[in-house]
Specification:
Elements (H helix, E strand, L loop, with lengths): L1 E2 L4 H7 L4 E6 L3 H13 L9 H16 L3 E6 L8
Antiparallel strand pairs: 1-3, 2-3
Helix pairs in contact: 2-3
């Protein structure tokens, strides 16, 4: 499962003792590299001027850098051997 940190308590409530949480925070340079690649694949490049592209390359990385994703893995219960 993946989600934002605010659902961690809800998951733990329903699956007590069975979750491991890993916090994933993107690097700003990775986000910018991804945006450059996606913008270069634009099928209508004339629809965007340099100011809009500059705004995209500034605003999105700034906003996303403040976010993180938490991945939750369920641990299997140990099997009882009879």
């Amino acid at each position: 499962m993946t989600g934002r940190s605010h659902i961690q308590d809800e998951i733990a409530k329903h699956l007590p003792g069975r979750v491991t949480t890993i916090r994933i925070t993107p690097r700003k340079s990775d986000i910018i590299r991804y945006l450059h690649r996606r913008l270069s694949e634009d099928t209508t490049p004339d629809a965007m001027d340099s100011c809009l592209e500059a705004d995209i390359l500034k605003k999105i990385p700034d906003d996303i850098s403040e976010m993180c994703v938490e991945a939750t893995a369920l641990r299997r219960r140990p099997q009882v051997v009879g």
